[in-house]
Amino acid sequence: MDEQSQGMQGPPVPQFQPQKALRPDMGYNTLA
User: Which parts of this chain are annotated as the region Disordered (predicted)?
Assistant: First the structure.
């Protein structure tokens, strides 16, 4: 359900990392 809401903003990014869409660099570092 949450993923669908995120989908409206852009790609299905996790809640704890919504900035991934804005800054892929930080997103990758956080996921790593």
Answer: 1-32
